[in-house]
Amino acid sequence: MRKLFKMLIVLLLAAFLAGCGQPAAPGMITLATTSTEDSGLLDFILPYFTEDTGWEIRVISVGTGAAMQLGRDGEADVLLVHARSEEDRFVAEGYATRRYDVMYNDFVIVGPGDGPIGHNNDVHTTFTAILEQNLTFVSRGDNSGTHIRELEIWDALGLTPEDNSGYTSVGQGMGATLGMTVEMRAYTLVDRATWLSFPDVGDLIIICEGHADLLNPYGLLPVSTTLLPEGARAFIDWMTSPRGQELIAEFGLEEFGQPLFFPEAE
């Protein structure tokens, strides 16, 4: 009996020593993000990340403002957002150590093809015409990166959008906002990736594109209070690596004939 007990101790000790020095199995990190979910990018890219690293990701898709609040509240490990001024503030307040460039696309203004505004590349002229002609404009109104950019454009023009009786703030995500715009045959500001991947845009077309104020860069922010810093680090390293950047550049090519995002890692 004593001999059997000693053998059991030896086996348990051997198993313990075999486990020493081995890396802990990766777990699941929480990513708070925005319209990247509507575009389909994450459905495309995250399985590759998990396959390459072993880490799994739970995605919370909200507006940029809400994503950052999740970070402040310690309910996310890493953020993928697109409101540069707010991202810089997030870092300055100590909620992240730094911001990482990862990719960009652009915003477009869409509206009815038979409306009074023709296709152009001047966002200022377009916004001014929408306001002066009281054209129906659907705003996300949710403190997202898209909403923040829209407000920045109005502010740069010295215009108050609420002066337009057709201005409608809906407090919804990009997909829902675009759906309302289609139903109302109205105008809205939308990221190109969501626009291209939206299933039914009715008779809406791109009214304005190509202006410098419509550039839409995305940043990665590792949340300082994360309990899984190694997971957040793994995601950022992978997204900004040649592997992640190549997959970002590939997304959309087969279905749309053009990439929906452009890699921008340093």
Task: List its traits.
alpha/beta, D-Maltodextrin-Binding Protein, domain 2, 266 residues, 10 strands, eight-stranded mixed sheet, two-stranded parallel sheet, 2 domains, disordered N terminus, 20% strand, 44% helix
Task: Give an account of the 3D structure.
With 266 residues, this protein is an alpha/beta fold. It has two domains: 20-104 and 216-263, Periplasmic binding protein-like II (D-Maltodextrin-Binding Protein, domain 2), CATH 3.40.190.10; 106-214, Periplasmic binding protein-like II (D-Maltodextrin-Binding Protein, domain 2). It is 44% helix and 20% strand. It has helices at residues 2-19, 36-39, 41-53, 64-72, 84-92, 123-132, 145-156, 174-184, 192-197, 229-239, 242-250, 253-256, and strands at residues 28-33, 56-61, 78-81, 100-112, 137-139, 167-169, 188-191, 204-208, 215-222, 262-263. Strands 1, 2, 3, 4, 7, 8, 9 and 10 form an eight-stranded mixed beta sheet that branches. Strand 5, helix 7 and strand 6 form a beta-alpha-beta unit. The longest helix is centred in the N-terminal third of the chain and has 18 residues, at 2-19. The radius of gyration is 23 Å and the shape is globular. The N and C termini lie far apart (65 Å). Mean pLDDT is 90; it is low at 1-23.
